[in-house]
């Protein structure tokens, strides 16, 4: 055991290392009981294990549990029927007959009675397509439909198309609207390198900087509390919460590149389980460096400086004079350059990173703009910066997002997933991959074409030769969504 502890860092771990086949089978047996699932009467141990020890179950199993329990009784019944249909379909396929008995809860086709209780009601709402009013109408639609358990369908005013296609397009267009830089919702810079090219997210080609595209993803921009700007942004995050919950509830996919730190907040119990969100110590400077590299880099350098400062101050072998000399010699290192704290010319005030934000300067303390950061108060400066960018400055936005999300289903239901898994549930596989064999196996030619037709084979060649960006565009054109669901 002693040697194992010392070598644990050298052991390669995978997400499936701790998955328990026996517990998975037992859980799926419970989910196979239609009466138990439909009446929301699963044994307490199911919730205990799935939420406290999600690593014991595969992502597929946890998605099944999520679908069966998070959305209420009517959705649970439909999930049961869809799962039954899937098992029957698989049992009819020659390639999966042998594998079926191994499925948790799987049964033979002839053991299933032909029953169908009903289907979820689809509610169709008409919205305008024009870009100027779409987002405003989308906000109204989300607020109106948030508490309803029916499936949202969209029809565009003046157009004949209905059903899945227009609905998927609506979700894609709203996701694009949320990424507009002018909304001032997210951290951004006026000179972001990631915004140096034109983009088309479904609303036509837009100029550089129109949308926020950052390597670290989208994260709420810190906003001064108790201002009109804070209220406006909080309202947008309220709608975003409803939107994200509807995406998950109806099984849609959207191209919305949320950052890992933001997704960490979504799955944190401190955000979803208390009357007021508790953001303290949830995110670190490493997270800040992901979402705001330059600012995070400077603050991490100051944190390293503070650690050195405290080491000197706590060194009992040094007298006061020696400590003072050591502190004067201590430097801040930023990208290989060393300097004194005072040489950074910092004050207890922060400026917005972009001109889209309404405030010009925010004082972290009273008269902060006139208070220089020195070796004596650098600790306080770092603490105030962390509080503003990762705690107090985003608290209203996160609380508003949670309130909106909870109108559809409880945000705490996401705790059985990791941040990366939630991103997959929302956006699917962001870099879709397929091989020639995949296309041949899962594509069925129609209208006189066969799998041996020269035209079809050329089509396959084109699909296989696409790069990642072209594949996303192809999926967007053919399905209304630029991603594939997890596992596809």
Automatic annotation (TrEMBL):
Domain HECT: 148-488
Keywords recorded for this protein, A-Z: Transferase, Ubl conjugation pathway
Pfam families, per the entry: HECT
Gene Ontology MF, one: ubiquitin protein ligase activity
Pathway annotation from the record: Protein modification; protein ubiquitination
Catalytic reaction equation(s): S-ubiquitinyl-[E2 ubiquitin-conjugating enzyme]-L-cysteine + [acceptor protein]-L-lysine = [E2 ubiquitin-conjugating enzyme]-L-cysteine + N(6)-ubiquitinyl-[acceptor protein]-L-lysine
EC class name: transferase
GO cellular component, one term: nuclear speck
E.C. designation(s): 2.3.2.26
GO biological process: proteasome-mediated ubiquitin-dependent protein catabolic process; protein K63-linked ubiquitination
Family note: Belongs to the UPL family. K-HECT subfamily.
Protein name: E3 ubiquitin-protein ligase
């Amino acid at each position: 055991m002693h040697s194992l502890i010392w070598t644990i860092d050298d052991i390669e771990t995978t997400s499936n290392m701790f998955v328990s086949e026996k517990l998975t089978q037992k859980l799926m047996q419970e989910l196979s009981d239609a009466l138990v699932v439909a009446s929301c009467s699963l044994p307490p141990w199911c919730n205990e294990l799935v939420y406290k020890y999600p690593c014991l179950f595969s992502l597929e199993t946890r998605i099944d549990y999520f679908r069966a329990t998070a959305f209420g009784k009517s959705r649970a019944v439909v999930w049961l029927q869809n799962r039954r249909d899937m098992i029957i379909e698989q049992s009819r396929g020659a390639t999966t007959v042998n594998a079926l008995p191994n499925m948790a809860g799987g049964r033979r086709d002839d053991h299933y009675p032909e029953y169908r209780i009903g289907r979820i009601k689809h509610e169709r709402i008409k919205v305008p397509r024009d870009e100027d009013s779409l987002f405003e109408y989308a906000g109204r639609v989300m607020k109106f439909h948030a508490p309803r358990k029916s499936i949202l369908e969209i029809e565009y005013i003046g157009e004949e198309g209905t059903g899945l296609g227009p609905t998927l397009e609506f979700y894609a267009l709203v996701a694009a609207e949320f990424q507009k830089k002018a909304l001032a919702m997210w951290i951004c810079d006026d000179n972001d390198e990631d915004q140096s090219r034109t983009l088309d997210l479904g609303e036509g080609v837009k100029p550089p900087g129109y949308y926020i595209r950052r390597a670290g993803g989208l994260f709420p921009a810190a906003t001064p509390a108790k201002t009109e700007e804070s209220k406006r942004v909080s309202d947008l995050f309220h709608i975003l919460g409803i939107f994200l919950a509807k995406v998950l509830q109806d099984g849609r996919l959207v191209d919305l590149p949320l950052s890992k730190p933001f997704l960490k907040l979504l799955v944190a119990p401190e955000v979803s389980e208390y009357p007021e969100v508790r953001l303290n110590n949830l995110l670190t400077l490493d997270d800040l460096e992901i979402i705001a590299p330059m600012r995070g880099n400077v603050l991490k350098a100051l944190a390293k400086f503070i650690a050195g400062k405290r080491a000197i101050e706590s060194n009992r072998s040094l007298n006061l004079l020696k400590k003072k000399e050591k502190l004067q010699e201590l430097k801040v290192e930023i990208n290989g350059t060393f300097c004194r704290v005072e040489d950074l010319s910092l004050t207890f005030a922060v400026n917005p990173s972009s001109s889209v934000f309404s405030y010009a300067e925010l004082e972290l303390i009273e008269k902060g703009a006139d208070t220089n950061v020195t070796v004596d108060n650098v600790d306080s400066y770092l603490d105030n910066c962390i509080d503003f960018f990762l705690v107090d400055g985003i608290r209203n936005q996160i609380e508003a997002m949670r309130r909106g999300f909870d109108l559809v289903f409880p945000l705490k239901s996401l705790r059985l997933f990791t941040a990366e898994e939630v991103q997959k549930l929302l956006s699917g596989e962001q870099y879709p991959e397929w091989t020639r064999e995949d296309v041949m196996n899962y594509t069925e030619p129609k209208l006189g074409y066969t799998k041996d037709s020269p035209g079809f084979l050329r089509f396959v060649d084109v699909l296989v030769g696409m790069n990642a960006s072209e594949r996303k565009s192809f999926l967007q054109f053919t399905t209304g969504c630029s991603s594939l669901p997890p596992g596809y």
